[in-house]
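hey can u run this one w/ adenosine monophosphate bound, need the structure tokens asap thx
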Amino acid sequence: MLPPGSTIGILGGGQLGRMLGLAAAQLGFQVHIYAPDRESVAAQVAARHVQAAWDDEPRLAAFAAACDAMTFEFENVPIDTVRFLSGHVAVRPGAQGLEIAQDRLAEKQFVAGLGGRTAPFAPVPDRAALDTALAELGTPAILKTVRMGYDGKGQARLRTDADADTAWDGIDHHAAILEGFVTFAHEFSVLLVRGIDGETRFWDSSVNVHEGGILATSSLPPPQIVLDQQDEARALMQAIADALDYVGVLTGEFFATDAGPVFNEMAPRVHNSGHWTIEGAVTSQFENHIRAIAGLPLGNTGTAALPVVMHNLIGTSIGTVPSLLADPGAHVHHYGKTEVRQGRKLGHVTWVGTSPA
Ligand code: AMP
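ok here u go:
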């Protein structure tokens, strides 16, 4: 159990690190951020910021020496970096879940191996394999790069076989996976926290709406079909967490379909669809992640009040902050990023027990 005053290292410098840092500070911890980027909104609320490359072993070793435990907020931290650091300090969760989540093919194979329901999929290492995969799965289908895809990037939809060349060009000829198109009623998340002793707690599932591949809103209560499928989806996420001996917050994204919950992907970290837990749950995902990696007792994951609505503030919609501040029920979060770009997550706002004014 880490005593107050201990130092928690976070790999990655974005808003997830910022909100983890605030939660760690609440519990009396110091936070150090390691990130290659010049601008780090996590470092704005941390005791120390090391700006260095992911493969700079002397800087990594010095960073690890200053930390009592370490975690990551960025899903594409190179696996070799995490392995190197694990030789110096406890990194939680470990490298295994991260390695699987970084590879869409390995992820689907791992989950299918645990008995989970996924979209039909086939590997597409090259252009010829795309034709084979299309013959097997048919259309419509989605081609996704195996690595580095997020927020709808690195994806191309195929309505017919005639779209194959355009789709292959659209993902820049990277190794990919073809997925059959899933007809779903809703998208939802399963958010869990697992402690060092294996104790696992779940938050209530939110229904998520994406726009242009980017999460726009999460809300509770979700529609009945999600409530009906939540337990089966939780059982799968529990099996995943146990198989990885996972420590911390783990997120699973699912489609609610007529055939039951279909696993889409997982994130071995706190997640945008869990931001509502800051005000909407007794203990937030950020606080429970810190509690878990520090070996502290886990907090109550119960929902504080319904309904809950979380809206992302993306791109120029950050300009609505002044009017949101006039809404007495709005909990406004500004991530402190200076550059406004289309599709960039710049803040979010949550209503708990009340609706937007
Ligand atoms: P992903 O990056 O895998 O989360 O995909 C981004 C979004 O694309 C998802 O949230 C879904 O809305 C949609 N999507 C992804 N995969 C599929 C699929 N196999 N069938 C239907 N829609 C999908």
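Residues 119, 142, 149, 152, 179, 181-182, 187, 210, 213, 253, 264-265 surround adenosine monophosphate (CB under 6 Å). anyway lmk if its weird
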